Amino acid sequence: MFLCIYYICIAGYTLTMHEVALMSSILDTLRESAVQNGISNITQIKLVVGKFSMALPDSLLFAFEALGQEELFMGAVLEIEERDINCICHDCRQSFSLDNDYYFICPNCTGHNTEIISGRELYIDYYEGD
Fold first, then answer.
1. Is the pTM higher than 0.85?
2. If you placed Cys at 42, which of 74, 84, 85, 129 could pair as Cys (CB 3.0 to 4.6 Å)?
């Protein structure tokens, strides 16, 4: 089995193509919405990124700085809210949060019948502009 990960290097930083592709898509969505709403300058963007989405906030910020060099995004501030991974156990109905170990076993009853209820998010919460 062969795994190939592509990287892009910008100003001495290395990003995986995952975050670059995500940010490119986010900027495309914002461009389209700005045109539809008559906005010529976006001043603020807020993204919500769940930890289980595997998108790294720092890499998204850097990708935004690298890709958002057009007039529409000049001076825009990107805010990223990172959401924890929260689960529920269907055996004992206990909710719990996961640490970075991704151990999907209920800490209350040690049940395996768990479901992720948040932490997969990756969306534009809002943007502002004139």
1. no
2. 129
| Residue 42 to residue 34: CA distance in whole angstroms | 8
Q: Which residues pair with 77 in a beta bridge?
A: 44
The CATH number of residue 13's host domain is 3.30.2320.50
Q: Which uninterrupted H or E stretch holds 67?
A: helix 57-67
Q: Are 35 and 23 in contact (CB under 8 A)?
A: no
Contact partners, residue 120, CB within 8 Å, separation at least 6:
50, 52, 53
Question: Per-residue pLDDT tens for 32-79?
Answer: 999 999 999 999 999 999 999 989 999 999 999 999 999 999 999 999
Distance of alpha carbon 52 from alpha carbon 39, whole angstroms: 33
Residue 59, domain extent: 8-83+119-129
Number of structural domains the chain divides into = 1
